[in-house]
Design goal:
Blueprint (H helix, E strand, L loop, with lengths): L10 E2 L7 E3 L5 H14 L9 E4 L7 H13 L4 E5 L23 E2 L20 E4 L8 E4 L3 E4 L8 E4 L3 E7 L2 E4 L9 E6 L3 E4 L2 E4 H4 L8 E5 L4 E5 L2
Parallel strand pairs: 2-3, 3-4, 6-8, 7-9, 8-10, 9-11, 10-12, 11-13
Antiparallel strand pairs: 1-5, 12-15, 13-14, 15-16
Organism: Methylobacterium oxalidis
Subunit structure: Interacts with MinD and FtsZ.
Keywords: Cell cycle, Cell division, Septation
């Protein structure tokens, strides 16, 4: 009788992904109109992005929430989960409920016969700043949520730089720069030549159309002032 090799133990994997959170405001119809305007200015903004829907404070019932999810699906925005929904609203036909938190690293199922493992060593402190010596090319997406990003060259149209802290571009900023992505309203954006598709700080954004031509091609600083992005020319 041939013995079969033992199967490997089941492993549970944890993995961290960057998800965009959409938080609609009332009236929802007007918010959807603003979303459509953003999509016209930057058609690929939601392309391939995992999206979480935060409905905290909207007071939606099940039918209204289902309608909102359908409206977003019609715009090719697939919702992976919902935050802030009232009890009993979610269920069949709607995305699952989610809450904040970061998944851990790979987790192996415990073996009852194995001795207890030693306590894990503390991980090294993450780098606070990411410095890129080369330009960010079209189609590239640079993500660094632990601190600032400094680009020694330019950021091309169609490229994206996402930082938990501030963003410094020593060349031309033509793509999208998203600072304070980990919830940092003190984050800022600096660049030597300002020609962006979109800039955002702590969830607030402005597109090229919103920014106008006045500061185009200038060295600028962008920061939040009273829940609005203020862009000023650097001397």
């Amino acid at each position: 009788m041939t013995e079969t090799a033992p199967r490997p133990p089941i492993r549970f994997r944890g993995r961290s992904f960057m998800a965009m959170v959409l938080a609609p405001t009332q009236p929802v119809a007007d918010w959807l109109s603003d979303l459509d305007a953003l999509a016209r200015r930057s058609p690929a903004f939601f392309s391939g992005r995992p999206v979480i829907l935060d409905v905290s404070g909207l007071g939606l019932d099940r039918a209204a929430l289902a309608g909102l999810v359908a409206d977003l699906a019609a715009r090719d925005i697939a919702i992976l989960g919902v935050e802030g929904a009232g009890p009993g609203i979610l269920g069949e036909g709607l995305p699952p409920p989610l809450s904040g938190g970061r998944p851990a690293a790979d987790i192996a199922a415990p073996d009852p016969a194995a001795p207890a493992p030693p306590p894990p060593e503390a991980p090294p402190a993450p780098a606070r700043s990411l410095i890129l010596d080369t330009p960010v090319r079209s189609g590239q997406a640079i993500l660094h949520l632990e601190g600032d990003i400094t680009v020694m060259g330019s950021v091309a149209s169609g490229a994206e730089v996402i930082a938990g802290g501030s963003i410094h571009v020593y060349g031309t900023l033509r793509g999208r720069a998203i600072a304070g992505a980990a919830g940092n309203p003190q984050a800022r954006i600096y660049c030597r030549r300002f020609e962006p598709e979109l800039i955002a700080i702590d969830g607030l954004y402005r597109t090229a159309d919103d920014l106008g031509p006045t500061l185009r091609g200038q060295a600028i600083e962008a920061r939040l002032v009273e829940d609005a992005i203020k862009v000023t020319k650097l001397d």
